[in-house]
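Request from the bench team (R.T.):
"We need a structural guess for the complex before ordering more thiamine diphosphate. Sequence and SMILES attached. Just send the tokens back."

Command: build protein-thiamine diphosphate structure.
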Amino acid sequence: MPILDLIAEPADLADLDHDQLTALAAEIRAFLVESVCRAGGHLGPNLGAVELTIAIHRTFRSPHDRIIFDTGHQAYTHKILTGRRDRFGTLRRAGGLSGYPSRAESPHDLTENSHASTALSYADGLARAYALDGCDRAVVAVVGDGAVTGGLTWEALNNLAVSPGRVVVVLNDNGRSYGPTAGGVAAHLARLRGGDRTLGDLFGALGLGYLGPVDGHDLPALEAALARARDSGRTVVVHCVTRKGLGYPPAEADEVDRMHTVPVIDPETGHPARSPGRTWTDLFGSELLALGGEREDLIAVSAAMTAPTGLTAFGQAFPERLVDTGIAEQHAVTAAAGLALGGKHPVVAIYATFLNRAFDQVLLDVALHRLPVTFVLDRSGITGPDGPSHHGMWDLAVLGVVPGLRIAAPRDATTLREELREAVGHGGPTVVRFPKADVAADIPPVRRVRGLDLLRLPSRPRTLLVGVGALAGTAMAAADLLAAAGEECTVLDPRWVRPINPALATLARAHRLVVTVEDGVRSGGVGAAIAQFLSDREVPTPVRALGLPTRFVPHGSRDELLSRYRLDPEGVAAAVLDALARPQSAEPHPWPGRPLAARAPVNGSVNG
Ligand SMILES: Cc1ncc(C[n+]2csc(CCOP(=O)(O)OP(=O)(O)O)c2C)c(N)n1
Ligand SMILES: CC(=O)[C@@H](O)[C@H](O)COP(=O)(O)O
Ligand SMILES: [Mg+2]
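Reply to R.T.: structure attached below.
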């Protein structure tokens, strides 16, 4: 009988002997390969964390003791051991198992944010709370060597060193983020892995305990070290040396990122089941390579994601002009500001969601100084299987309030090339944003009017349909549906969506309705800005802004989620017809109730 069949919950691990535990680890590895190859997901990280997770669950009593996974992409074994093995067939599917810890799934899961370098801060606060309440509950934080390159980790360590709380820090050191982990911390960990203690250890220097390096695949050694840390009465870093992708040869052989994230793949070969199309990332990468050959001042900046953001070719051609800061977005942005102060034009390639973390740096280190920095936001809008903290749905709203920041949203390959060149040719801060998707066929403009691309220009349209970025294609498909229903629309791609192009006022005046559609939150998005822009200029044309709701969007496929929020052609067409059917008059409606009596001043209640 498979050992896995004996494990319904972590307590069931206690009775297993060494051979059974070894067999269990092998069974979990085989299960991970089979499941993740079938569904897609994080294969390399999870193959490296099997013994680590078994040892943690044998040493600590979850959920009484709390286990926090930094980033959370390496928590599949944790999910298997906490009763969710049977749900792996739904991994990262709409309504299925999340690829990260999920409080709705299990009391064993505590934090859901998949942004790196947060675990030790959560742990510091939690352990402090337990100390204040005299709770005898251990707090364990599993943090990768990549996550340790993030500044928040060091802010937490600085506090843990003097905190009344106690945390067992399980440093899962496989020497890699996607690629080899960058920076001095990584070099220090490598020295420690090699047994070189001449420089001491950083953690001891801060007054924290340090145990290791421990073989992260040797269960008895792991359990002994974890038990020592647990019983030490102080915060201890247990330095575990693991191998990302262990046990699956195609992952072990993957020099790029040890199969960090895989699509559905053939388990025999490790090759993708579907040959990938031409992605926005590919296009950006090749255009930046071309630009790099034309402009020596262009510097590519990445926060530990050179390959996934398309910078590999640029880095190979211009190694001295590629900066990998580690998982340190705030530093990456302000270092880019420094590069610009030094006469360079940095191109910061980053997933839209991760730039959230560096808003202050964009606002006050870059834009306040009007510096020529270009932010290329990949994975903007709905990304899909990585769920709420990975959708890049806030950039248009959040960055829309940054004075002097120009934002482009290309709709196809031609406009990506154009707008990227315009961005790096601009003397101030710029953004170019595009989704996690294959690039659709070009949509040539019928006419370009003062920088605005008119994609469809019928004779007597009532509606001006503004499609932002890749959703310009959706707007065109919606216009086809509407035309078939006898309702012609003008379709416009603004190209540069912030600041609002003044020519939009003239176009809006010539229509009875403006409908905008964007792959981002409605609140504060491009549609809202256009409505305010027109209102400020007393353009009476009503605006209907279509976009994402102000809520955390679950995981699922990009197309499923865009349809769920009516950001597909059918949804957009229905919204146009619905808006046209409503009375557009500005005539005031008769007041329904009795005249408003003067109200007594409220007593400061929040509902005032
Ligand atoms: C703030 C932030 N930036 C970037 C990422 C993308 N990302 C996901 S996992 C990962 C590498 C993590 O490396 P490490 O912590 O060593 O974990 P490992 O995958 O090696 O187990 C990165 C950069 C992220 N999740 N959060
Ligand atoms: C965990 C993490 O932040 C990334 O690994 C994330 O899975 C991004 O995946 P893609 O690069 O496939 O969008
Ligand atoms: Mg790592």
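Two things stood out. DSSP finds 22 helices and 18 strands in the chain. Residues 604-608 have pLDDT under 50 and may be disordered.
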